[in-house]
Amino acid sequence: MRLPRSLVRAAAWIRPQVPQQLLRLLLSTESFLSKDAPLVVLPAFERALAIAPHPDDETIGAGGTIARLARAGAEVWIVVVTDGEATIGSPHDAPETARRRRAEVATACRRLGAQPPRFLSIPDGQVSDHLDQLATHLQHEVSAHAPQVVFTPWPLERHPDHRACTTALAQLPPRDTELWGYEAHTPIPLPDRVIDIGADVAAKQAALAAHVTAARAFNLDACLGLARWRALSTDAGYGAAEAFLTLPWEELPRLTAAAARAWQLNSPVTWLSLGASRSARAGTIPEQIQEPAARESRDLLLFRRWADLRNLRAMQR
Ligand SMILES: [Zn+2]
Predict the structure, then answer these.
(1) Do residues 32 and 192 lie in contact, with contact meaning Cβ atoms separated by under 8 Å?
(2) Domain 22-251 class?
(3) N or C: which end of the chain has fewer CB within 10 A?
């Protein structure tokens, strides 16, 4: 989206006079105020950190946004939690699979314009058994780089390693840092940040192509279809976009606990999606999400954000 020159000049004048937090909020809500620009303006983050449970998640979930930030001059660090040695479809043994996937994610980071990845080498498939170790590493990374935004899998991702990353983050003391949940295997029913990656979709595609080993198990290009649909769903026509759910850091322990309880109730994503869309339309709560734990996660993860979104939209009237 191209902003009028007068608006750019006004923004340059306003920038030093507005506290950083408020400025970021204003920038991220700007698109809701404009009728023909439903995509959220990406705040001018200068330092970002992305947490990838496996090599490939950084690209699938946030690759376009990472590339866009890097292109604008931001430093982006990637923490790769496992080496992805347990991936299905690899013809190699676990150490060789790990070696290859580490090299592949390093190539992907280069193609996205990010810094070389940092590897934690926690066993693939067992991240939830190493939460304390992961939290210590993440604390170190966050302190070392002081990122303004952290990208992490959103709390209702299907893969337990993905959910464990956000659970580990909840152990850290709350920070004045934005936390954006991305969608890798599980689409977010009601995202509150949708970022235009139209100009960076080629970088995302090139980074995806680096993940040769992962591509034996999954059609990684499927996420490009989701990106195109995200653009369609926000009236951005033939573009591409990535969607996120912002997570208030101080509420992370409650959010991740609610997500864990939701997972005990079988397939929460399905009923959360159904429940959210039906309730939003009909103003009723379907029976299957009446159960107290389900209601709690619905409130925490969806409707509160939905209400935020509606408030923002109401401002334009
Ligand atoms: Zn993964």
Answers:
(1) no
(2) alpha beta
(3) C
